[in-house]
Amino acid sequence: WCTLRLSSTASSLGYTALSNSGHSEYVTVCGGLQWGLALIFALFAWKPELHRVGMPASILLYAPIVIHRLASVLRFAPVEKLTYAVATLEVVMLLVAVAIWFWAAFPKAA
Fold it and tell me: Of 51, 60, 87, 109, which has the fewest beta carbons less than 10 angstroms from its beta carbon?
């Protein structure tokens, strides 16, 4: 999404004056890194033997991103509507991941 619609996504998230170097950095982080993370998460999900380590590893990787997102939104508010939407989605995804992990790691005794 960020890679294919560079200008519109960058400006919607507040990157209004990017040089060519800035565009390169934005695409690298918002495109390349996101694809890499998606592939890692897909591998964790696809291989049952990786499930036990995949959820906590994913949470440990993603939680600092969400914490930084929330801190930056609070620090720089008001921000664009899309930034609030992305922050909300990230919090929900992290909470769902933590809930799934707890549910799987600590099943109720039968």
Answer: 109
In whole angstroms, give the CA distance from residue 93 to residue 77: 22
Instruction: Report the phi/psi class of residue 14: left, alpha or beta, with left for phi > 0 and alpha for psi in -120 to 50.
Output: left
Q: Residue 69 pLDDT more than 80?
A: yes
> Which pLDDT band, with edges at 50, 70 and 90, does 66 fall under?
very high
How far is residue 109's CA from residue 75's CA, in Å, rounded to a whole number?
44
64/79 Cα distance (integer angstroms)? 20
The torsion defined by the Cα of 57, 59, 61 and 65, in degrees rounded to 10, comes to 180
* Interval 48-57: pLDDT, tens: 999 889 989 9
Which DSSP symbol is given to 78?
S
Contacts of 44 (CB under 8 A, 6+ apart): 50, 51, 53, 54, 55, 57, 58
Cα separations in angstroms, 74 against 29, 58, 61, 63, 70: 22, 24, 21, 17, 6
